[in-house]
Amino acid sequence: MAKYEIVGGTPLKGSVVISGAKNAAVAILPAALLVSGPCRIENVPDISDVRILINILRDMGATIEYEDANTLTVDCTAINSIHPDPALVRKMRASYYLMGALLGRFGHAAVALPGGCNFASRPIDQHIKGFMALGADVDESEDYVNMVPGVDGLHGARISLDMASVGATVNIMLASVLIPGRTVIENAAKEPHVVDLANFLNTMGAHVSGAGTDTIKIRGVDALRGGSYAIIPDQIEAGTYMAAAAATGGNVLVQNVIPKHMERISTKLQEMGARITEYDDAIRVQANKRLHNTTVKTRPYPGFPTDMQAQLCVCMALAAGVSRLTESVYETRFFGYCTELANMGADILISGKTAIVTGQDKLHGATVCAHDLRAGAALVIAGLAAEGTTVVEDIHYIERGYENIIQKLTGLGATIRRIEE
Ligand code: EPU
């Protein structure tokens, strides 16, 4: 098992270039299943979740060619299977987008239930509700979802989600772009990657409007054609480097970002005393004095993202005063890292949905374990800020979502190495 060894205590300095958004890429690659012809996709992050999806698509018969590490041409025209390899599907969460994409393309799908980061119970009832509203007969067993067209065939529908689920919104968009008629998703998720998927689909000839608002409307078309598309920068990767700059008392220019997507993260770090300077496509984070406490509640976009909860918690753990961090999307997310941070000297009390974080002057190095992607990112930040040496185990979670993290952090002056055992 590989691990990271970090010698902490050095403020991060310099600039870092943010990669393409993981959660957009893992929706856009399955979306290529809906396209007749080659899709050239730029800014694809080279991370393990993307590599797994590429293996799934190739195994199903797609032709995928790399122009460089981040630019691919995906041609799914030859695929005629509705059975992605269950062993690969179970390796990641977003493989559930194959359900919507296969249903949309073939009217049938047989997809294993996904694996991935299990920091909470992650039901997919809203996805299934959407597929059924679109006319699919869905048979969900303990580890598989099978779908066939119902007696009336597949058709557009009005679907009101019980919560603004990213996954359900994406899956319903994927399923409906080629289905005849008009589909309306109410209480849709508004995350930047939902908008990016809509833009990709529209570039390929779909009719999707309203992405980024509560209501997304889709008018089914006969076919999507090939084209070229560039994925947006990763909001959470950018936020992670911003938090790392703040926690280490650094001065980092985070490049290739969309500052609008970063607003809540920038505001919180600013409230904690970091100096934030926004440019057209970059943000500088300077923290030359100790951070101070704040209060945060995670919410769906445009709120403060749950995927930044753990990284911000590290900033709170080092800030002067008592901070309160409330999770409203995944209640059990604290358990992935708070005990590990406590091993490094953090003082965190969990009370229901809220972590009460009493800031310490210092954290100290320890051997800690990444239990999921963002928890792992937080432990890396803690290690960078702590005195002494930190070893982060189970880093395969981190490598699901952070491209070239060692090179990027080393470029900012960090002492971090990957140890293969
Ligand atoms: N929910 C249901 N039923 C459903 C779907 C969701 O009850 O059918 C609940 C969830 O349990 C959760 C809430 O609704 O409490 C929101 O879940 P959502 O569906 O929005 O999350 P997701 O699609 O499973 C995506 C990201 C996550 C991110 C969440 C929230 C992808 C591939 N994953 O997950 O990203 O935390 O949205 O923003 O886009 C990560 O990148 O580390 C990550 C976990």
Describe the structure.
α4 (97-106) packs parallel to α6 (166-176) and α5 (125-133) runs parallel beside α6 (166-176). β17 (295-297), α10 and β18 (322-326) form a beta-alpha-beta unit. This protein is of the alpha+beta class and 421 residues long. It has 2 domains: 2-19 and 233-420, UDP-n-acetylglucosamine1-carboxyvinyl-transferase, Chain (Alpha-beta prism); 22-230, UDP-n-acetylglucosamine1-carboxyvinyl-transferase, Chain (Alpha-beta prism). The longest helix is centred in the middle third of the chain and has 13 residues, at 235-247. It has helices at 22-31, 48-59, 86-89, 97-106, 125-133, 166-176, 192-203, 235-247, 263-271, 309-318, 338-343, 373-385, 396-399, 405-411; strands at 3-7, 13-17, 35-42, 63-68, 71-75, 109-112, 136-140, 144-149, 158-160, 182-186, 207-209, 216-219, 224-230, 251-255, 275-278, 282-286, 295-297, 322-326, 347-351, 354-358, 367-369, 389-393, 415-419. The chain is built from 14 helices and 23 strands. Strands 21-22-1-23 form a 4-stranded mixed sheet. It starts with a strand and ends with a strand. The model has no long low-confidence stretch (mean pLDDT 96). Residues 23, 26, 93-94, 117, 122-127, 163, 165-168, 189, 306-307, 329-330, 373-374, 401 line the site of uridine-diphosphate-2(N-acetylglucosaminyl) butyric acid. Uridine-diphosphate-2(N-acetylglucosaminyl) butyric acid (EPU) is lined by residues 23, 26, 93-94, 117, 122-127, 163, 165-168, 189, 306-307, 329-330, 373-374, 401.
